[in-house]
Write a structure and sequence with these properties.
Elements: E1 3-9, E2 13-18, E3 23-28, E4 31-34, E5 39-42, H1 46-63, E6 70-75, E7 78-82, E8 85-86, E9 89-96, H2 99-105, E10 112-122, E11 131-132, H3 134-139, H4 145-168, E12 171-182, E13 188-191, E14 199-203, H5 213-216, H6 223-239
Antiparallel strand pairs: 1-2, 2-3, 3-7, 4-5, 6-7, 8-12, 9-10, 9-12, 10-11, 12-13, 12-14
Helix pairs in contact: 1-6
Bound molecules: adenosine-5'-triphosphate and thymidine-5'-diphosphate (TYD).
Residues 8, 10-13, 15, 24, 69, 81-84, 86, 179, 181, 191-193 line the site of adenosine-5'-triphosphate.
């Protein structure tokens, strides 16, 4: 399969059409952004690491029977995915207090949250991705009640899988962001990306961040940290085969 016209250039990925109208060609870029794009730098190797971590986790979720958009890997920084009509919401799932939640409620850093907290943010660069609750999303026509119920259920299943998967390699999955879309036949699937760009990961032993907080807070080079997450996931996947 070949890539055709570029459809969209985002902050982390470029999406291309292919000769199959149901398939997108996704290139993970060597770019890091924070503060909704206000902080932006090139980091060699980051795209390939995020592509590899995403491929590995999407393949595992597919194998576990969770519906995702992932089809196959093409090369270091490229994968094919099923084209979706995206739901314009970012679903944030929190297992431990951090980031905006910790600031908003002034609670202890990494306080366990039971049940896991689900929050939606409306995907809008112009509005700076504002928080949106279920009724607001329904009233504004972004999703139906049924779709939100299905998103909450699928988010919980993904969280259960990933929380356990990272715990097995000594990492706490503190919080993360998911995006969902619908295939041409209406099936709801997990889309976008699964990488440390969209997760907070904390090493259980050292307490060190193994995610984009390293970049957000200027705490040193990012690629060795992402490479460590990938190699720990790969080592465990190999050990359990
Ligand atoms: P943000 O970083 O806030 O998510 P962005 O648009 O800059 O925004 P990128 O990851 O660079 O993010 O771009 C990828 C774009 O492709 C996103 O708009 C995402 O919603 C969209 N997308 C992801 N998976 C699919 C898919 N399977 N079908 C169609 N669009 C998709
Ligand atoms: P959050 O604590 O709300 O934001 P901040 O990191 O700005 O304090 O973020 C929670 C998690 O969701 C964190 O792992 C980052 C991820 N996330 C994204 O990847 N993109 C987003 O647009 C949002 C709102 C969150």
């Amino acid at each position: 399969m070949e890539k055709a016209a570029v459809l969209y250039t985002g902050k982390a990925k470029q999406m291309f059409a292919t000769d199959d109208p149901d398939v997108l060609w996704v290139e993970y870029m060597d770019q890091a952004t924070a503060l909704n794009g206000k902080k932006k730098v090139q980091i060699a190797g980051k795209g390939a690491l995020n592509r590899q971590i995403s491929s590995l986790l999407f393949e595992e979720l597919n194998a576990a029977g969770l519906p995702t958009h992932y089809l196959q890997t093409i090369d270091d920084h490229t994968m094919l995915v099923k084209k979706c009509a995206m739901i314009p919401l970012e679903a944030v799932i929190r297992n431990f207090a951090s980031g905006s939640f910790e600031r908003k409620f002034q609670v202890a850093h990494l306080r366990p949250l039971v049940p896991a907290v689900h929050e939606f943010f409306y995907k809008s660069d112009a509005l700076d991705d504002p928080f949106i609750n279920d009724e607001q999303a329904i009233a504004l026509g972004f999703a139906t009640r049924e779709t939100l119920t299905a998103i909450h259920a699928l988010s919980d299943r993904v969280n259960t899988y990933l929380l356990e998967r990272f715990a097995q390699i000594g990492i706490d999955l503190v919080d993360f962001k998911l995006e969902f879309g619908r295939l041409a036949d209406g099936t709801l699937v997990l889309a976008d990306e699964l990488s440390p760009d969209n997760m907070r990961l904390v090493d259980q032993e050292s307490g060190n961040s193994l995610d984009k907080d390293v970049f957000r807070q200027d705490r040193g080079p990012l690629t060795p940290v992402y490479a460590q997450v990938l190699s720990r996931l790969q080592a465990d996947a190999a050990a359990s085969r």
